[in-house]
Amino acid sequence: MGYLVGVTALWAFSFSLIGVYLAGQVDSYFAVLVRVTLAMLVFLPFLRPSLLRGKQRLALMALGAIQLGIMYTFFYHSFLLLSVPEVLLFTIFTPVYIALLDDLMFKRFTPIYLVTAILAVLGAGVIRYDGIDSGFWLGFLVVQGANLCFAIGQVGYRRLAADLPPTLAWHNVFGWFFIGAMLVALPAFLLFGNSAALPSTTLQWGVLAWLGLVASGVGYFAWNQGATKVDAGTLAIMNNALVPAGLVVNLVIWNRDADVGKLLLGAAIMGASLWLNHWWLQRRKVAAA
Length: 289
What we know:
Residues 3-127, 138-274 form the EamA domain. With 289 residues, the protein is mainly alpha-helical.
């Protein structure tokens, strides 16, 4: 849980940095390429190919390609179809996908996970809902593609970790994750990128360096490690904890408008979903004793 909380705080700052210094100024495909490249360079020196078999390496690369590469391709394209509030609103369905996919991959059905995930969606919806326009269905489907990719990456990582030795040094194999993401990010930039919209200031390059080395490199490693250490219900809920965290950072540091009442109410609903999930887990442990 500590991993997820720490990365939530880290990514809450990252969203504001993107919105203030990069969005609309630096080509999004180039930004993704830089982030993935820097993150990959962080882990390449530690890479030990012999620790994983060929199929396991390919599986980790595929997870990186889906969770980062394809997800970002969907996500950035959605801004061409929707307003920013609509994109943010439609990202809140990720917990439901996580709850359902985790049960599917581990061949079970846990109704409480679905209930708590839906509560997390409602909480985030209270915070983010600003109204939507007509004619948004294509954009909605594109965002759901991004949500589904992010969910597949997290649950797939949990499933892969379950089949590997618990003593595996993940920092010695995680480079494959970013190599997989690079196999998507580089062609995406070459096909869709705008080379006329590259960073033009030292500050923009600094923000990209931070996002690549820390938010992407350290962040995705820690988040996926955290995903293997909690139950699916907690993971699903934490996926929407970024909404109130990001708004708090934006409000305190950049003084952006935010409805504090909606923020507190939505956070309270998500907190209730975490409590419900924890209560159910403790009850199950007592029943099994």
